[in-house]
Amino acid sequence: MAESDTAPTIPKKCGPYISSVTSHGMNLMIRGIVLFFIGVLLALVLNLLQIQRNVTLFPPDVITCIFSSAWWVPPCCGTASAVIGLLYPCMDRHLGEPHKFKREWSSVMRCVAVFVGINHASAKVDFANNIQLSLTLAALSIGLWWTFDRSRSGFGLGIGIAFLATVVSQLLVYNGVYQYTSPDFLYVRSWLPCIFFAGGITVGNIGRQLAMYECKVIAEKSHQD
């Protein structure tokens, strides 16, 4: 047998630039920063919709942002977006169930558009009562998961995110940080968990797509080297 057939293949060593860019820590930080700014942008746009319909009321002395949102809302939403967006692909790897359903940016953008539409409906569409609105938004949120996710991990994380976010909102309203008009679920609106669920699915899809995109870039660079 030829010597070339038995000799082990030694991978080429990446240069310092390639190794730094493709390191796990660097990729994690870049994805976290991107997800943070996406969360900030969504918070500004969606909170503006809520304030315009007087669904969410902030005290006058804290309305300092250009979009009439309390200053702490965008950073908090950005941080939550980064955590959720990094958690989804991590959970997929931990469970050994890589998410492959509709994995392209066009699908992610449609998911974002549907989420914004659901939030817009909660602020703009008039229903006879809050029960009808809550049931409608619940159906739309589950439809968003079925259309753009369909994974058990995505559904479970969405439920967990909705529960935790609703509890945090209840505590904030209880302590007078802000308030909801016509609360019907303790201190908040009954449809709020539906918005949190849909938001978790949406940000999770963005995080998964960023993770998959960076994996492709790393693989292509490794192949070239």
TrEMBL record:
Transmembrane regions listed in the UniProt entry: 28-49, 69-88, 131-148, 155-174, 186-206
Membrane topology: Multi-pass membrane protein
Domain of life: Eukaryota
GO terms for biological process, alphabetical: cellular response to insulin stimulus; cholesterol biosynthetic process; SREBP signaling pathway; SREBP-SCAP complex retention in endoplasmic reticulum
Protein name: Insulin-induced gene protein
The keyword Magnesium appears for this protein: no
Role according to the record: Mediates feedback control of cholesterol synthesis.
Keywords of the record: Cholesterol metabolism, Endoplasmic reticulum, Lipid metabolism, Lipid-binding, Membrane, Steroid metabolism, Sterol metabolism, Transmembrane, Transmembrane helix
Any single GO CC term annotated in Swiss-Prot or TrEMBL for this entry: SREBP-SCAP-Insig complex
Family recorded in the similarity comment: Belongs to the INSIG family.
Entry-linked Pfam families: INSIG
GO molecular function, one term: lipid binding
Compartment(s): Endoplasmic reticulum membrane
The UniProt record lists the keyword Endoplasmic reticulum: yes
